[in-house]
Automatic annotation (TrEMBL), chain A:
It comes from the Bacteria. It comes from Mucilaginibacter frigoritolerans. Residues 121-132, 144-155 have a biased composition (Low complexity). Residues 78-95, 165-176 have a biased composition (Polar residues). This is Outer membrane protein with beta-barrel domain. The chain crosses the membrane at residues 47-70. Residues 78-176 are annotated as: Disordered. The keyword Transmembrane applies.
Automatic annotation (TrEMBL), chain B:
Keywords: Sigma factor, Transcription, Transcription regulation. This is RNA polymerase sigma-70 factor (ECF subfamily). It comes from Mucilaginibacter frigoritolerans. Residues 24-89 form the RNA polymerase sigma-70 region domain. The keyword Transmembrane helix does not apply. GO terms for biological process: DNA-templated transcription initiation. CDD domains: Sigma70_r4. InterPro entries: RNA_pol_sigma-70-like, RNA_pol_sigma-70_dom, RNA_pol_sigma70_r2, RNA_pol_sigma70_r4_t2, RNA_pol_sigma_r2, RNA_pol_sigma_r3/r4-like, WH-like_DNA-bd_sf. Transmembrane segments: none annotated. Belongs to the sigma-70 factor family. ECF subfamily.
C-alpha cells in the first residue's frame, strides 16, 4: 500500500515536472553569459594558435642572443685593420646612392656596411607595399636569394614565414655588426693615441659613425610600423616613468650602487596581446668594481684597487611585451627586447691602496653609443585607473651583451620602474 | 521545430556559427531549463548549470550522432551536468528528522490542485542528495542500482534518500494544503472575473440576437 502511495506521489511529480506547462522563458542574459564562455574558449584557442609563433619568437631571440655572444670574438680578430675607416666610408656612399653593389660571399670584415644599407633601403620600400605580418621576413629572403636592393616593392606576401628567423637576424645583425664594428674600431684607433687631457675621441670618427647609425635606427624603427599596419586597431600609449635601480659589474650585484632613471616611453599595442614599446630614459648609473673588470686603454702608473664610475646615459629601449593576464583593471605582461645606450658623460674615480697616488679622477664627456648592447627583461603590472590612465609597476633586468662605456665594463642593472601610462587614442577606440 | 530545420541548426553549430548556436539555445532553452531547474536550488543556479550544459553541447556537437534524437542527447547532457555540479554535495549526510507523513492518501494527492511551479518549488527545497535521487528515480526512471552507479553511492543510500525525499515532499504537500486553506480565496478571486466576463459577453450576444429577432 505504501508502495502504491509512493508511486502516486512519483507520478504526480513526473507528470507535472516533465511537462512544464509554462516553460521557463528565455532570458537574454543567460545567452550572454554562455556567449562569454564560448568567447573565452575561443580566446584560449587563440593562445594555442599563438604558441608556435611565440615559440619561434623565443627561438629567434635565443638565436640572436647566441649570435651576440659570439660576435665580440669576431670583432677582436679584426681590430688590426686600421685603414678600414676611410675605405668603409667610400663604400658606404656607394651603398646609399646606388644600392646596387653586390657583396660577394665571404665578404671581408670591412664590408658589412654596404650590405646593411642595402637592407635598409629594402625595408623602407617594403613597408609601403606590405600588409603581411611577416613582411619583415621578405627583406631577408630577397637578400639571401641574391636580388639586388634595386628590385624591391614586389610581393612581400610570397616570402615564407619559416624564413623569418634567418631574416630578422640578418637584418638586425648586419646593421649592428656594422655599427659596432665601427665603434670598436674607433675605440681601438683612438686608444693608443688617447690624450688624457683632451679627453675626447676624434670628432671625425664620431661623425663617421653617425651616418650608418641613422640608417640603422630607421631600419629598426620601421619594424613596429609594419606591424601596426598589418593589425586591426593599434593603440598608442605614452608612459612617464621613474626607476631606482641597482647597477653592478660582473656576474653579481654585490658591489651594486643605486642609480636613478627617468624618461618617457611610447608603446603600440599591435595585437590584443603584443605590445611594442620604445622610448628614451635618462639614466644615472653609478657603479663600482675591481680594477680588473675595467678594460681601460689608459693605464695609470699605479694600479688602482677600485674604480667608482658614474655614467650618465640615454637608454633607448625597444621592447616587445606579451600580455599574460588581463582581468578587471589589472594587466600583467612579460617583455623582452634590446636597449641602446648613448653615453652622455662618464666619470671615473680611482681608489688606490696608497691614498696619495694620482690620478684619482678622469672624465669622458663625449663618448659612444652602444646600439642594442643590452638585453632587457621585464614584467609589467598595470592597474587601470580609468579608460585613459593607468599606473604601472615594472621590475626589470638589463643584461649586457657588449662591454659598455669607455672602460668597457659589463654593466648589469636591475630595478623597478614606476610609471603613469596614458592611452593616446582612448577616445576614438576605448 | 522541424527535423530538417533542427539538423540545419546542428550543422551550423558544428561550424561554430554563433547565430545557429543562439537559435538552438533559444529553441531548447525551456526544455533544458526544465531539467536543470529540478536539480538546482534556484533559477539562477539552474541557468548557470544549463549554460555549462550548452557549452558542452556546443563544444562536443561534432560527436553527436545525427541519426539519434537530439532532445534526448541534450537532456542527458543537462542531467549529467546537473549531477556533476552538485556532486560535491551529494555525499553530505543529512541528519534532519523526518516528520512522518504516511497518512496522506491518494485522493488527497489527487485533489490538491498543485501546479508545476508549486511542485518545482517543493523539489527545489529538498536537500541536494534527496533531490538528485528523487529526480533520477521518480522522474527520469532510473533504478537504484543505476543511480548508485551514476552518483557513486550505494543502492541502499539511494533507496534511503528516495524515501526521505518522498517523506519531505509529502510533508510539504500537507503544509501547502494548510497554507492554501488559510488563504483560501486566492484562487477563487483569480477565476471569478474571467467567469464574469464570459457571462457578460455571452449575454451581449444573446441580447443582440434578441433585438434583431
Amino acid at each position: 500500500m505504501s508502495n502504491e502511495k509512493d508511486k502516486n506521489l512519483d507520478d504526480l511529480f513526473r507528470k507535472k515536472l516533465q511537462d512544464p506547462v509554462n516553460e521557463a522563458g528565455f532570458r537574454e542574459e543567460d545567452w550572454d553569459s554562455l556567449e562569454e564562455m564560448l568567447d573565452e574558449k575561443k580566446k584560449r584557442r587563440g593562445i594555442i594558435f599563438w604558441l608556435p609563433v611565440l615559440g619561434s619568437v623565443a627561438a629567434l631571440l635565443l638565436l640572436f642572443l647566441g649570435w651576440w655572444m659570439f660576435r665580440p670574438q669576431i670583432n677582436r680578430s679584426n681590430t688590426g685593420n686600421s685603414v678600414a675607416v676611410t675605405s668603409r666610408h667610400t663604400k658606404t656612399n656607394t651603398g646609399i646612392n646606388g644600392g646596387t653593389e653586390r657583396q660577394p660571399e665571404g665578404v671581408k670584415q670591412s664590408n658589412p656596411l654596404p650590405e646593411s644599407h642595402a637592407d635598409n633601403s629594402q625595408s623602407g620600400k617594403s613597408i609601403s607595399g606590405s600588409k603581411s605580418f611577416f613582411t619583415l621576413s621578405a627583406k631577408g629572403t630577397r637578400r639571401n636569394s641574391g636580388n639586388g636592393s634595386s628590385t624591391v616593392s614586389g610581393t612581400p606576401e610570397t616570402a615564407g614565414e619559416g624564413i623569418a628567423a634567418n631574416n630578422n637576424k640578418g637584418i638586425a645583425g648586419s646593421n649592428k655588426k656594422s655599427i659596432t664594428t665601427n665603434n670598436k674600431r674607433i675605440m681601438v684607433a683612438a686608444g693608443p693615441t688617447y690624450d688624457f687631457n683632451s679627453g675626447s675621441i676624434s670628432n671625425q670618427n664620431v661623425a663617421a659613425v653617425k651616418l650608418p647609425l641613422k640608417n640603422a635606427i630607421i631600419a629598426v624603427t620601421a619594424e613596429p610600423k609594419v606591424k601596426v599596419k598589418s593589425t586591426f586597431h593599434p593603440q598608442y600609449a605614452l608612459t612617464v616613468l621613474a626607476a631606482p635601480d641597482a647597477n653592478g659589474v660582473g656576474s653579481s650585484f654585490q658591489q651594486s650602487k643605486l642609480g636613478t632613471n627617468f624618461g618617457l616611453a611610447f608603446s603600440v599595442d599591435v595585437s590584443k596581446k603584443f605590445t611594442i614599446s620604445t622610448g628614451a630614459v635618462y639614466s644615472v648609473k653609478p657603479y663600482s668594481a675591481e680594477y680588473g673588470q675595467y678594460h681601460i686603454n689608459y693605464q695609470p702608473a699605479v694600479t688602482p684597487t677600485q674604480v667608482i664610475a658614474d655614467c650618465r646615459m640615454l637608454d633607448i629601449p625597444l621592447n616587445v611585451g606579451y600580455q599574460i593576464y588581463n582581468k578587471h583593471q589589472n594587466r600583467i605582461s612579460l617583455g623582452t627586447g634590446l636597449s641602446s645606450y648613448i653615453m652622455l658623460h662618464e666619470s671615473y674615480t680611482f681608489n688606490y691602496a696608497d691614498s696619495y697616488t694620482s690620478p684619482t679622477h678622469f672624465t669622458v664627456p663625449n663618448s659612444n653609443k652602444y646600439f642594442f648592447g643590452v638585453a632587457n627583461f621585464n614584467a609589467t603590472y598595470e592597474h587601470r585607473l580609468n579608460s585613459k590612465a593607468s599606473i604601472m609597476l615594472q621590475p626589470y633586468l638589463k643584461l649586457p651583451l657588449t662591454n659598455i662605456g669607455y672602460s668597457q665594463v659589463r654593466l648589469q642593472t636591475t630595478g623597478v620602474a614606476v610609471g603613469l601610462h596614458w592611452n593616446l587614442n582612448s577616445l576614438s577606440k576605448p | 521545430m522541424g527535423e530538417e530545420e533542427l539538423h540545419q541548426l546542428i550543422r551550423g553549430c558544428i561550424k561554430q556559427d554563433r547565430k545557429c548556436q543562439k537559435m538552438l539555445y533559444k529553441a531548447f532553452y525551456g526544455f533544458a531549463m526544465g531539467i536543470c531547474l529540478r536539480y538546482a536550488n534556484s533559477r539562477d543556479e539552474a541557468a548557470e548549470v544549463m549554460n555549462q550544459g550548452f557549452f558542452k553541447v556546443f563544444t562536443h556537437i561534432g560527436s553527436f550522432d545525427t541519426t539519434r534524437p537530439f532532445k534526448a542527447w541534450l537532456g542527458k547532457i543537462m542531467m549529467n551536468v546537473s549531477i556533476d555540479f552538485y556532486r560535491a554535495n551529494l555525499k553530505m549526510a543529512y541528519t534532519d528528522d523526518l516528520e512522518t507523513a504516511e497518512h496522506i492518501s491518494d485522493n488527497e494527492l489527487a485533489d490538491r490542485n498543485l501546479n508545476y511551479n508549486d511542485l518545482l518549488a517543493m523539489v527545489q527545497q529538498l536537500p541536494q542528495a534527496y533531490r538528485t535521487v528523487f529526480n533520477l528515480f521518480a522522474i527520469e526512471g532510473y533504478s537504484h542500482e543505476e543511480i548508485g552507479e551514476m552518483l557513486n553511492i550505494n543502492a541502499g543510500t539511494s533507496k534511503s534518500n528516495l524515501h526521505k525525499a518522498r517523506q519531505k515532499l509529502k510533508q510539504m504537500i500537507l503544509n501547502a494544503d494548510a497554507t492554501a486553506k488559510n488563504t483560501n480565496y486566492g484562487s477563487g478571486t483569480g477565476y471569478t472575473p474571467i467567469v464574469a466576463l464570459n457571462a457578460i459577453s455571452m449575454q451581449g450576444i444573446f441580447l443582440n440576437k434578441g433585438i434583431r429577432g
